Amino acid sequence: MKPIKAILLLALMFNVLFANAQNSLDSVMPVRGFCIAAPTPKGVDDFVKFINEELGPRKVNVLILRVDYNYQFESHPELRDTAGLSKADIKKLVAAAKKNNIQIIPQVNLLGHQSWANHTGKLLAVYPQYDETPLVKMPEKYEWPNADGLYCKSYCPLHPEVHKVVFDVVDEMCDAFETNAFHAGMDEVFYIGDDKCPRCQGRDKAELFAGEVRKIRDHLAQKNRQLWIWGDRLLDGKTTGMGMWEASYNNTHRAVDMIPKDVMICDWHYERVDKTPVYFAMKGLNVVTCPWRKPELAVLQTEDMANFRKQATREMKDRYKGMMQTVWSGAESFLDGFYGRNKNQQSANAGTNTPWDCFREMYKKIGEL
């Protein structure tokens, strides 16, 4: 055989083997995700390097970037945060993701998480009339618990003007990232159906939550885009004992039977290996399990997800979509830890219970599957 033909044959064989391996991985774990805050403009190049050198080789195929208002919006420039990403910054991220066969899904928190600690988020700072609880004032110094039950502010889902603004933001974000999916957050919604809200008072909180999910989902569907949300508000915190953070104490959990079945549920549990993916799958919903900073739990959750897919009925099997590492710090802070550049005492005290160790161990386990 001539050398050129031999080389071509070897290349063909390699491509076939690679394709078979990829198909096998997709069948075992269709969604292999990573969720983190979008980098700041000065951190974009470092994050592109991370995509190319760490996410791509690990076969990550979904990257959720929590952007919120850290973008130079053209539709609503009044909502831009000070150090917002430019369109050129986003195109760098998009190019790196495409090169590595990664789908980018931007996140802007809708409904809840419109404030943090004693800081009002951009939407309610600019449009205070959208506030579900305007009588609750932001404290100078935030403490939990507090008399107002303030964790994070929410916008009123029944305000007649709020969706025009947020949907402009959603559409512009999806267009910039060239994506067919959007993550709306919607976790830890404590303020909903407030008794003093002139529009929401007396209404069923589950119906209010489900109505907002449907409204966002239907808007995205007009352009063939899929809605992703966190799953905690769809779980009963009292019956399960999961509490008010990982699940609902204000009766929104009944919304699980009221939302469209094509919404992707991101099911997060950071202290236990709860079997809630089975619950969501039995409700007809697609589900992704999301660990954070405990590697041993992430490994068990990964094994569970693989076993659910193996052992489930034909009807339920494909609803178990996969795993997604979550990071709840800035991208720069995570990369400092990941690359060993972070030598502070807090990091040292964490030992191996860090999001970067969790990420490594989870993807090691996925590779072994």
Q: Can you describe this structure in just a few lines?
A:
Residues 84-306 form the Glycoside hydrolase family 20 catalytic domain. The protein is of the alpha/beta class and 369 residues long. It has helices at residues 3-28, 44-55, 87-99, 122-126, 162-177, 205-221, 237-240, 243-246, 276-282, 295-311, 314-317, 331-338, 345-350, 355-368; strands spanning 31-37, 62-66, 103-110, 115-116, 119-120, 181-185, 226-230, 264-268, 286-290, 320-326.
Q: Could you please describe the fold and organization of this structure?
A:
- This protein is α/β, with parallel strands linked by helices.
- It has one domain (31-368): TIM Barrel (Alpha-Beta Barrel).
- Helices cover 41% and strands 14% of the residues.
- It has 14 helices and ten strands.
- It has helices spanning 3-28, 44-55, 87-99, 122-126, 162-177, 205-221, 237-240, 243-246, 276-282, 295-311, 314-317, 331-338, 345-350, 355-368, and strands at 31-37, 62-66, 103-110, 115-116, 119-120, 181-185, 226-230, 264-268, 286-290, 320-326.
- The strands form two sheets. Strands 1-2-3-6-7-8-9-10 form an eight-stranded parallel beta barrel, surrounded by six helices. Strands 4-5 form a two-stranded antiparallel ribbon.
- Strand 4 (115-116) and strand 5 (119-120) form a beta hairpin.
- Helix 2 (44-55) packs parallel to helix 3 and helix 10 (295-311) packs parallel to helix 14 (355-368).
